[in-house]
């Protein structure tokens, strides 16, 4: 049996669906607070009865800040080899969630804060076994 | 309730000391604090210590037990406090509370740390339920990147420039150069800072703090005990501890709810507000502040978030020299983390030592003139925040 050539950075956090890529989280049915990743309990101090249900988020949001990663981070981060500076975007989703993710952009320094981004599932790089490692990323649109 | 005096302050300078044991570094700080207080080790009734993840403590964060064994096993109670980078000041809060409540008359608070190389990987766990692991594995945003994200948001909102950021570092070294306990005492020009390597755009190497080794200790005591030792004690007016609120808009793992207003460290805002209220002071009553400047961003954002100045005003105050020791809103007269480097669990106590020395007027060229009341503030992993206000 051969190893799969593509793996998820961590299983169970995102999926490609017929409606497009989704982040897999949860939402409290009592107070409507969204969570990513899934949460076992509701952390909202105003919520008196935690009632967590699976929910999913995407496909688009708005960039509220960007950081560039100018040096190769240590493991367990996966990055391209040879290393190329990538951006990380802080994105507000209309579902009421703020999520970080890598920016999928050739020149992350030119990406404007305030712009819209699409959720995509894309490779971060390769792991030590040579497998392509996938994660959710933000693609400027 | 008893008034609480801070009777003695001691420090081992910050630096890298591969040839020294953690016990040696702690002992220098403890002996110097005891000497400063004019008391013997046997007079200490309890020890409150910062728990380290990186060094000593028998692998269980029992750093206070190490100190007691090293100084002499008198049988005193030891409280080892774990609060990430806020552990030192968290231990200070516990020591303060024990004097305040009358449980003990003399308490030693101590924090010492020998740090591993490189930037801190905040949790270091390889566990898919750990938010920090998920952030590094799925995205890749180490500490400097997290600070960069906050910084960029400020630049977008207020037009803060890269030159403004660099000017904070220039100012830090302008005062830190006078501090014999600081590790990085060289002076930098704006060009030096702007020419240092980009670590995580928009932040450069000289605008973020590296890791250091160091130790600091404070002797706390009751007012009655203090009067036997000095006629001019420094008082611990208040201390406060807080944890982050659910809705502060700051994603500590992969995500959060946006909440109201701009993303911020609510644990810092809350602990500072509580400490001010307990001391019956307003934010503008503070003569100076030692705040946790892991990066230049915090020196601009924190004073605004705490009401020491108006939102968006920090850059103007910086350029006008108002954040220097001689200005109207002195920030980090010690030189701050930019000059000390981060010795995680010890640093909350170097800040408190600096506040004490400033209030005594012992700080020479970096002295805040006629300082009467000062605050030390720190934050740590897990959304821990602390603040302590000292006065004379
Ligand atoms: Zn709820």
The percent of residues in helical segments of chain A reads: under 10%
CATH H-level superfamily of the largest domain in chain B: Thiolase/Chalcone synthase
Order of SSEs of chain B = EHEHEHEHHHHEEEHEEHEHHHHEE
The overall number of domains of chain B is 2
What structural category characterises the helix and strand content of chain A? Answer: mainly beta
Task: Give the overall shape of chain B.
Answer: globular
Using a beta-carbon cutoff below 8 angstroms, give the protein chain pair with the largest interface and the number of residues from each chain: A-B, 45 and 38 residues
What does this structure look like?
- The complex is a heterodimer of chains A (141) and B (392).
- Chain A has one domain (6-140).
- The N and C termini of chain A lie far apart (40 Å).
- Chain A is mainly β and 141 residues long.
- In chain A, strands 6-7-8-10-9 form a 5-stranded mixed β-barrel. In chain A, strands 2, 3, 4 and 5 form a 4-stranded antiparallel sheet that branches.
- Chain A is globular and about 50 Å long.
- Chain A is 0% helix and 49% strand.
- Chain B has helices at residues 22-37, 63-71, 87-100, 131-138, 143-158, 162-176, 190-195, 223-229, 266-278, 296-305, 314-319, 336-340, 347-360, and strands at residues 4-15, 46-50, 78-81, 106-113, 198-200, 203-204, 213-222, 234-243, 255-256, 288-290, 373-380, 384-391.
- Chain B has 2 domains: 4-118 and 213-234, Thiolase/Chalcone synthase (Peroxisomal Thiolase, Chain A, domain 1), CATH 3.40.47.10; 131-208 and 236-391, 3-Layer(aba) Sandwich (Peroxisomal Thiolase, Chain A, domain 1).
- The two termini of chain B are 19 Å apart.
- The mean pLDDT of chain B is 96.
- In chain B, a hairpin with a 2-residue loop joins strand 5 (198-200) and strand 6.
- Chain B has 13 helices and 12 strands.
- Chain B is globular.
- In chain B, the strands form 2 sheets. A 9-stranded mixed sheet of chain B has the order 3-2-4-7-1-8-12-11-10, sandwiched between helices.
- Chain B has 392 residues and is α/β, with parallel strands linked by helices.
- In chain B, helix 6 (162-176) crosses helix 10 (296-305).
- Chain A binds chain B through residues 9-11, 13, 25, 33-37, 43-45, 64-71, 73-74, 76-79, 85-86, 88, 90, 92, 96-102, 109, 113-114, 124, 135-136, and chain B through 118, 121, 126, 128, 133-142, 145-146, 148-150, 152-153, 156, 197-201, 245-247, 249, 251, 254-258, 263.
